[in-house]
Amino acid sequence: MKKLIIFTLLALIAVTTGCGKRNEATMIDPNNDKNPRIMGLGYRDFEQAASTAVQEMFSSGAVNKPDGGRYIMVVSRVLNDTMQNIDTDLLVKKIRVDLLRSGRVITTTAMGINGAEDPMVAKARKLRNNDEVNQKNVARKGKIVAPELSLSGKIIQRNHRIDSSTDQIEYFFMLTLTEIETGLAIWEGETPIIKRGDSGTVNW
Predict the structure, then answer these.
(1) Which InterPro entries match (predicted)?
(2) Across the chain, which distance is largest between two alpha carbons, in Å?
(3) Which helix (H) or strand (E) holds 131?
């Protein structure tokens, strides 16, 4: 009986001690992150690629409308041709934020390669002729603005072995801005991000 009681007490102590040891999360300031970069793609890589792409667009004059207005842009498809399961929307969103803040481009969410990015645009139009809805604020026909520019691209990865213990990973963010009316590419950009490190840290 005594052995059973002692065993039970030891088990309880082990459980409570284990529960007390928890890994605490640490907040990271993206503007002051001193941690080393990873061999894979991290948030700083997307920020760098987006910033570089937008600055190159501005420098090329591709988004300078002749009449001084703002182009309407739609995001087409950005393909992920890397060995990582990444969300390309992260890159696209950062580019769109920078473009919108510049005041030179407006992006539409009423349409996209896989349908509307914001389905509420179309859904709200189903309220027409609904007796329960005040028709004063219901969107009228012919008011959706068609895009003039389309942004598409691809993220490519290339791996190289430098020596027995060192790998080099090359990422290329390739973007194309197309004038929809003519189908002509009016700007293309390629942002390389090269990383070199211990091959033992690469785990796809």
Answers:
(1) LpoB
(2) 92
(3) none
Residues 38-52: pLDDT tens digits?
788 888 888 888 889
Contact call for residues 40 and 76 (beta carbons, < 8 A): no
String of DSSP letters for 132-193: TS-GGGSPPTT-SPPPSEEEEEEEEEEEEEEETTEEEEEEEEEEEEEETTTTEEEEEEEEEE
d(CA 128, CA 138): 7
- Distance, in Å, from the CA atom of 14 to the CA atom of 125, rounded to the nearest integer, reads 61
Rounded to two decimals, the pTM is 0.73
Domain 69-127+143-204 has CATH 3.40.50: yes
d(CA 54, CA 60): 10
CA distances 65 to 3, 21, 60, 106, 192, Å, are 85, 59, 12, 12, 28
Separation of alpha carbons 54 and 51, rounded Å: 5
